[in-house]
Amino acid sequence: MSRISQRSSERRPFRGSIADWRESARSIHPRGTSWFNVGWVVLLAAIALSILGVVTIQTTQPTYATRQFVHLLIGIILAIAVAVPDYRKLRRFTWPIAIISIVLLIFVLIPFVPDWLVRPRNGARRWINLFVTDVQPSELAKIAWIALMAEWLVRRNTYRRFSGFILTFLVTLVPFGLILIEPDLGTALLFIPTLLVMLVVAGARLRHVFLVLLCGISLGPLAYFTPGVLKPHQIARIDAIVAQFKGDSSLDRDEGFQAARARIVVGSGGVTGVGREHARAIVQFNRLPEERNDMIFAVLVCRFGLLGGALMGLLFILFATAGMTVAATSRDGFGRLLVVGIVAMVFFQMFVNTGMTIGLLPITGMTLPFVSYGGTSLVATWIMAGLILNVALRRPRRFQRETFTFDEST
Hints:
The chain is mainly α. The chain has helices at about 5-10, 20-30, 40-60, 60-85, 95-105, 135-155, 160-180, 185-200, 205-225, 230-245, 255-270, 275-285, 295-330, 335-355, 375-395; strands spanning about 120, 125-130, 135. A three-stranded antiparallel sheet has the order 1-2-3, with no helix packed on it. Mean pLDDT is about 85; it is low at about 1-30.
């Protein structure tokens, strides 16, 4: 008998029954599937948020609500599809997928591409026309970048040194810069806090993280006052929220129009909401721009009140808590970082969208995950949910690598 078989028999003696054989096989091959796990809670929260979004869109745009429901079905199908193959086998494709996403981001910026193929909207080039629907490469780039960073961090520990730490930001600057040029400042800014969370979980030195945060806080005002860094409409949005905090309403009919109308619509909902027909009348009377996209949270609170907004917040907290539980119980470094990156990206996006709707943050043109109308956005977030379920379904019985534990002297 070989040495390996001797160890196997000593670890789990075979007694002949099918149940014993299955248990023995699972102990020898630790890559079994765990069907009962908290990953299903992530999907339940995603379904509840998506249905809430369809109902809210239906308040003012019934036709778009039907389209959103179709996108929801496609998203669920793709989430199941990405949850089936073992995510560890998908690691080899992280670089090719990342390169494809970068090519698509460059493609939408090429000036001589005809408008029927790349449709400019409000001066932004973000969408590729596939005739049956439009695809937004930046949404797909978020998934590709998270997977690439998870693969990058799990294969090396150079980020423990400041030079390697900065290198992760230089890699991130590629999708960040391309999305910023579109322009889509809101989506681009999601990459930085998500990367910081992934670095902290991976074991980066906290003093490096704090140094980057300090630099970011310092460079913010510099970007505002340096000509050419921010576009005029971005500066105008900052001016509008500063005026709002000062109690100055002079910009509410100009640069601050969208933010001011959103606050009025939110306040009209009260505690329990005003119902569908009344909410539709309020939204239309106030001429709220982008009510099915960026400002969907205002419509939601108007129709369902403060309680509806609190329910949505609790669902996002449930999504994040369940996702982080999946990450904490994962013994595979790549899976853990993949889930952490997804949860951080979704949660930061929710925070920025609701913050700008209620007047705490400048308007950035960012959708609300699972809730806002948008085929690519909804499908992309559902793919993320499917990846979290994939990691939750496959929990090895031992750590795949002694990872994320470092001596401070190293």
